[in-house]
């Protein structure tokens, strides 16, 4: 708040750095920004749709604000002029009362109605002060801002707009910032130097350099001359974005305007410039700093040395350090900076020489020794690192806590637990207070030795000393306890976490449940499942109520916070849950749902609505009804994110007519359309196999002036290459366009594209594409690995074997992924002996068998009706610690089903659900199909219902498979229920208004 007040209230004259007119200018440049600079900006950085922040030409914009400004006393119906609440009067009680109403969250009357009933005077000064008190609660500040605007006779001033802009920018709500600028122009409110500074600062801080530069250009066009603060913000943004050429141009312009850099900004500029390796440029900047900006030569050298060390340019750092030594400028600070750089760069001999120099000059410190310890640990030289602790003790120096932490972690990793414990005891004797990282390492060490009582002693001591452990630390404890076969203790840790308001992930709880199941403790399994249910319910009340069973936490008086407002994202998650509960109740008609929503009178923001839509995607129809209803609420307006989410929901339900309606409504409401909006529409067409419509949307997108990004290209190519709606010529054209527009495709896109070319027999085209990608910078080894996989997938086994022979000529090796693709392809093609020979060859060259190879062998042996051999492969995978993926378990289930081992298939499926990896859509679909083939379609119907419970939406094919299966088995009544479930799902996902 203090920072915001300082920026918004100080006069612009104080923001400029005043220099004597007699000073010489190191650079003679034009007062305006160089044209060459903006040419480079427009071609490289600026977004397609430049932010329109030009001042309006409307005559009424010449006024700084509307005059006279009046406030309406809503309760009395009379107008109150600013004189009634003048600056001479103490307005803090008024500000306090209004702020209480704005920030309170009471049931009954809305905030706006309670504000109307206050009957307090209001002027721009009071409005600005209230807004500043709501600084970290953007959505409440914006509601109050809109309420002020809606009052008859009261208009916002430049100051109030500036305050709201600052709050929106701090919350990173850039869409709101742009809307505020538009409103400012419509209201005829003049943009001053503070307005432009706020915009540029927030865009710069967020890394949106293009937006910041675009706003800077608009500022100059409006006739507002940038001051030192603006240049400072722009220069910092360019340095953070590592754009040294542009940073140098702006620096030159600052120098030409007699503007100096402070030490922090100078350091940022040097960090950026050292990447250029332009010593002349750096020398010139150094000269400016010493001659024109009154920095000492020693300070400038220290900054330059730090920049070279930070960027890892140690040779240049050595040269600078040598120059400092010759000029007798080497200070303790310089020694430590150089020492840290050498240690991080692994130059330990040179680092030891620096330590010796420090000893001679009696300048050695615990900080310097700490760098040396870190360096030796990085190189894996534990003996030398530990030896330094003894050296420090003799010198009477106490190591820092970070040095102890790093050493202990390395000792534990090297199974030297006793040495680590000794180091911890020494740390306590030295009076060094342990931090959470040390505690985590210590607890993990005790668990590995089975000393559980010591673990709880450490955790108790940590609580008593007021140290709060993180979620990451607790997760490490739970994993270590499960690995050491102490799942009961792991469950206790989870209970303690709940008492502290820290909630573990599903995977961690499932890990504990799986370990408890192994030891056969059914009582604790049920307790753990109850915990998981409480966590997943999302109900704060339920979580708070469940704390009572954890006696240890209850005795320590630890309870969960009742404050459910996420101030960073401005979302009240409790309200989100209540809205979702209302929408999820499917038996109600929309009219009844609407009444319940209106009765609750929630405070909606676009972020909250976006989250609700995401949670209600399965019930698309009611979600879209809610979207339409909330868009008509007073003081609410949809943004790009909420429209995009609604478009995605409509498209996912194949309601393309409504999807297009939403897009046109978005444009009518002047909501910014971005490339992602088009990408979503193109993807929805593609997923439905309507690639012709996807192509039309793509052409329309370009016709309307929107530039496709790499995701647009990616998803369009994926759908054009797919078997459903495949269009080969168009896919090749789009891929080439993607490359031409310097949008490097990712591995998935390349994999799909090459597979398509190989499947249609265009092997040479696929090879040429790989060569082109490698020339553009794609990693050669990965590219050819993907090509081999694509050829094998298309059944081109001989061509892929020939390619393997040519790999050495082009500088590639045969890696594990290539072997896996070849082996799988040979097995699928019935060439068993060649496949097994490849497995042996793979072992001979030292490449271990991967889960992909083992899974391929399992599938092969199941196909040969040799389930014993397949299970032997599976056991071998487990013994060798091979990662068991969803594909592996799915192959096992399919193999059991094909061999009539239905009970074993269900056992594996339940194991997946219990311990992970959890079944995905493909696993459910495969198992469903296998059950129907085996005459167990009723079980497959249960899987349909289970998919809904897991949040997975069954496809049309899933419904059709189960429907036909039940009819074949004569269960016509159940078959009709499947159709009814499908129709019901379709109704729920579509918008019927």
From TrEMBL:
Tell me the ranges holding the PPR repeats. Answer: 157-191, 192-226, 227-261, 297-331, 365-399, 400-434, 470-504, 674-708, 709-745, 780-814, 815-849, 850-884, 885-919, 920-954
Q: Does the keyword Repeat apply?
A: yes
Q: Which PANTHER family does the protein's record reference?
A: OS03G0856100 PROTEIN, PENTACOTRIPEPTIDE-REPEAT REGION OF PRORP DOMAIN-CONTAINING PROTEIN
Q: Which InterPro entries match?
A: PPR_rpt, TPR-like_helical_dom_sf
- Identification of the protein by name: Pentatricopeptide repeat-containing protein
> Its family?
Belongs to the PPR family. P subfamily.
Q: Which UniProt keywords apply?
A: Repeat, Transit peptide
Tell me which Pfam families the record gives.
Answer: PPR, PPR_2
